[in-house]
Structures are given as C-alpha cells and as structure tokens.
Design goal:
This protein is of the alpha+beta class. The chain is built from 3 helices and 7 strands; from the N terminus they run H-E-H-E-E-H-E-E-E-E. Helix 2 runs antiparallel to helix 3.
Amino acid sequence: MKKLIAAFCVCLMTTLAFAQNQKTPLVLTTAFTDSLTRQIQRIAPPDLSISKLVYTSTISADGILIKPLIIRQIGGGTIAENDFVVALRSLIIAAPAWKPALDTDTGKAVEDKVSFTIELDKKEIKIKQNK
C-alpha cells in the first residue's frame, strides 16, 4: 500500500511539473487588418502577381508581432514584387497590435505563436488568422 501511495505521489508531482498552461486564443484585430489593407493598397505594384502570402510569427504579451516570417508565397518573382514583400514585412511589424493570448490560470497576457494569410486580388485584399 505504501508503494502504491508513493508511486501515485510521484506520478502526481511529475504531471504537475510538466503540465501545460491553457491559453485563450489570440485574436486578429480590425485595426490591424484595416491598417494593413490600406498600406498594401498604397504600396502594391500595379502588375502584382503575388496572390497569397502566409506568415508565421510570435505575438508578444503586448499584442505586437515579433519577427513575422513568410512560410508560403504564391506568385511573384520580379524585383518590384520582392521590394513589395520587404516593405510589407516592415508594415506588418509597425501595424496596430493584436489581442494577445491570455493564460487561463492567471488571466495575464502571454506570448504565443500565430499564423495568418494575406490574399491579394486585383479587387480585394483579405487578411485572416489561420487556425
């Protein structure tokens, strides 16, 4: 019986030591999408052939994107389009904050990973958070 209790205590302590905190999901804000859409319309080259950009990044506890990286690009290849992508990254970093993830135990904002897509069409720009 003592061995069983000791084994149970060891299992319990191990579980508590390695337990993951639960987080509420972070949220893409309207301010971010509206600001970025206006900036894209302003800087996009007229003959843009990029149809989609997928980014991954860390969101700080303040809701700021840290080091957004392209994980997928569909289309593009000209010098003007490469310059557009470089300028877009700077605009993404400077764009308004996201709503950060919250630790469900403490209720405090925490750093988290995010993926989002920018779809570029001649008529419309769509920015959406990936799941």
